[in-house]
Amino acid sequence: MPPDADDAQVVLARFTHLIEAELAKSVLCGSGIPCALQNDHLVGVLPHLSNAVGGVALTVRAGDAEAARRLLDSPPDTDDPRIRALAPSGPLPGALAPDDDGPLQPSPRDQQATRAFRAAVLALLAVPVLLNVYSVYLMLTLDRAAGALSPRGRRHVALAVLFNLAVGWIPLALLLHRR
User: Fold this and answer.
1) 87: DSSP letter
2) What is the pLDDT of residues 5-62, one digit of tens each?
3) Full DSSP string of 141-152
4) Which residues contact 48 (CB under 8 A, 6 or more apart)?
5) At what angle do helices 18-30 and 65-73 cross, to 10 degrees?
């Protein structure tokens, strides 16, 4: 083997998304293995071309390839206190509560707030009076629904109020403008 064969660059991995390639590069550089990315600028600017150009290639020296592959294939060290400090200790703010069935489900109150918001938006496009009345009814009966109202649900209620006011004021403004 010639002496410079270990210095030749080999493609260790290809990534569709730039962020995955950057994370892998960060792991290798943090462990002292020099590496580089190819096509990273192109995929960063035009991500839809990633598959056309073969993705973002992570290259290392041939001599470091085996160690780099082992490092990337190994599970992360969760005993590192720096990693544990970054991990959230409880649920994230605004996170949905897990249902008994396992998947995360919005509360019935959140679902009703979303229905009120959708009805208010649709009232802008079709059947304004009927959908506005339905949206207002859903908002007025929101306190009877079970569960807590998440920040997203509160946002849906606020937007539904704004849309309902907008739809209600448009006919009034048109009527007054004609006089």
Assistant:
1) S
2) 667 999 999 999 999 999 999 999 988 999 999 999 988 898 888 888 888 999 999 9
3) TGGGSSSPPPHH
4) none
5) 110
Question: In whole angstroms, what is the distance from residue 78 CA to residue 99 CA?
Answer: 28
Place of tokens 């019935």: 108
Residue 95: partners with Cβ closer than 8 Å, 6 or more residues away: 104
What are the structure tokens assigned to 60, written together? 């290392």
Asked if 65 and 7 count as a contact pair (C-beta separation under 8 A), the reply is: no
Distance (Å, rounded) from C-alpha 108 to C-alpha 145? 6
Domain ranges of the chain: 8-82, 108-178
Quote the CA–CA distance of 141 and 111 in Å, as a whole number.
Answer: 12
The pLDDT tens digits for 96-111 are: 444 444 445 788 898 8
- Cα–Cα distances in angstroms (integers) from residue 178 to residues 19, 155, 165, 169, in the given order: 57, 35, 20, 14
Q: Has residue 137 got a pLDDT over 80? A: yes
Provide the pLDDT confidence category of residue 165 given band limits of 50, 70 and 90: confident
List CB contacts of 51: < 8 A, sequence separation 6 or more.
Answer: 16
Q: Enumerate the β-bridge partners of residue 36.
A: 59
